Amino acid sequence: MAQSDTVDRILDAAEELFAERGFAETSLRMITSKANVNLAAVNYHFGSKKALIHAVFARFLTPFSATLETAFDELEHKCQGNPPTLNQTLWVLTESAMRMPQRNEKGISIFMRLLGLAYTQSQGHLRKFLEQEYGQPFGRFMGLLKEATPELSAVDRYWRIQFMLGATAFTMSSSDALIDILDNKLGVQASVQEIAARLVPFLAEGMKAPDKIQLPPSVADTTVA
Amino acid sequence: MAQSDTVDRILDAAEELFAERGFAETSLRMITSKANVNLAAVNYHFGSKKALIHAVFARFLTPFSATLETAFDELEHKCQGNPPTLNQTLWVLTESAMRMPQRNEKGISIFMRLLGLAYTQSQGHLRKFLEQEYGQPFGRFMGLLKEATPELSAVDRYWRIQFMLGATAFTMSSSDALIDILDNKLGVQASVQEIAARLVPFLAEGMKAPDKIQLPPSVADTTVA
DNA sequence: TTAGTGCTCAAACGTATGTTTCAAACAGAC
DNA sequence: GTCTGTTTGAAACATACGTTTGAGCACTAA
Which residues contact B66 (CB under 8 A, 6 or more apart)? Predict the structure, then answer.
């Protein structure tokens, strides 16, 4: 059993268990028994549980951010100085994600869920790690969004980006469960790719909504449309 | 120190700590020391940590779901048989949330964050508890959404409701931090009410997006708009 | 062979957790 | 004032956690 075997088995098991149960609720003993390796192997190969969490993210995020930078380069080159549109920018992001090599049948949904957890769970060290390692492509994406929505005020854009992030992180992080529920309720099969294909128009349309907010009308004042 | 005092202090401390750190990462010792009560008080008054979590949700959710049912009654009465519009339905929900009596200055954002965590963190017992106790008003809201968007297929509506839930839960659960960041970056003050006022048009517009999905065009095929 | 290296293994360590115990303090009724 | 049921307090309980240890194994190089 070569080293890489043990390391990869730990990473595979950890990735899956973290996605299922969160970080704090997943013990090293669960990981090592699922991976069929000794408990001490985690601390030997990674040093600590925190470092293992970082390694799980790095294994996916490092090649992904490289792919993304290339895709942004191509997009900007194709546009020859004109700023890419909102739809183009969103599609480049989702396509890059979809095209990442998938380790198993669960594919990208596991990692989407991990990214969602990274936002939700406190885990201060994780957020710091992600910002330091992958802040650049994220900032570039934000810049493209800004160029693609010049009609929005900075405040409008700020909030709507949060809304987009929320819809994406929340849905993708539960994509497995949501796909199952849809199958049970309506007998319809779905895939992460299809979710993305439905999500992008929803987001793009929300971003284009009239930029002046309508202040809450009391229900009493509202007329039937 | 009467019983209610201890019970409420535990609930207050638990609510805040759970919202900050999640359920698994918050120990009973943190809660009891923040509440200035004895460690055993939690198991005496609530029976277990799980039951405490349920009680935290019930304290907010029980009066809220009653308020919501009343508001839905009023809305339907006002519409006299016609189905309420999407905007009306969304506004009734947000207004009901905004009008809940707020225990402290952090107000509703703490509870939004808890609801988000309830979705995200595994905690199977919590999801079961929430479905059993508060499934009815939730189902009624879903029914209103269905009536308000007859043009959508069941599958489209299903996914877009998830997107709306995500954008709402994600944004509201971090509303404090997001308001602070906005103040730092742009020097703009905001409130939870204002977030809601910006969120509803975004969601409504997203729901109205063209119902046929556009399948992912390759970046190479995309033309500059 | 011998020494050294990389890795695995079972066992233990120290710490933190949720929960239980039981005596002491308290409250209100008689 | 005394009794009774309720609530608090300090301490202990059993368990699970992340981490460390040191012996043992397989393999390479000198």
Answer: none
Are A160 and B198 inside 8 Å of each other by CB?
Answer: yes
Answer whether A26's CB lies under 8 Å from A17's CB: yes
The dihedral through the CA atoms of B21, B23, B25, B29 has a sign that is positive
d(C-alpha B25, C-alpha B108), whole Å: 22
Does the global pTM surpass 0.85?
A: no
Nearest-by-Cβ selection for A217 from B79, B91, B206: B91
Collapsing DSSP states into helix, strand and coil, what is residue B145?
helix
Q: How far, in Å, CA of A141 to CA of B70, rounded? A: 44
The answer to whether A43 CB is within 7 Å of strand D is: yes
pLDDT of residue A212: 53
The tokens describing A132, both together, are 């330091």
Q: Do A74 and B182 touch (CB under 8 A)?
A: no
Q: Which two tokens stand for residue A58?
A: 């790095």
Residues whose CB is below 7 A of strand C? A 1, 3, 5-6, 37-41, 44-45; B 26-30, 39-40, 42-44, 48-50
Contact predicate B166/A174, CB 8 Å: no
The pLDDT tens digits for A64-94 are: 999 999 999 999 999 998 999 998 899 899 8
User: Which tens digit of pLDDT belongs to each residue from A132-170?
Assistant: 999 999 999 999 999 999 999 999 999 999 999 999 988
Lowest mean pLDDT among A32-36, A136-140, A207-211, B62-66: A207-211
Which residue from B17, B224, B186 is spatially nearest to B114, judged by alpha carbons? Answer: B17
How far apart are the C-alpha atoms of B46 and B96, rounded to whole Å?
Answer: 29
pLDDT at B207: 93
d(CA A219, CA B88): 7
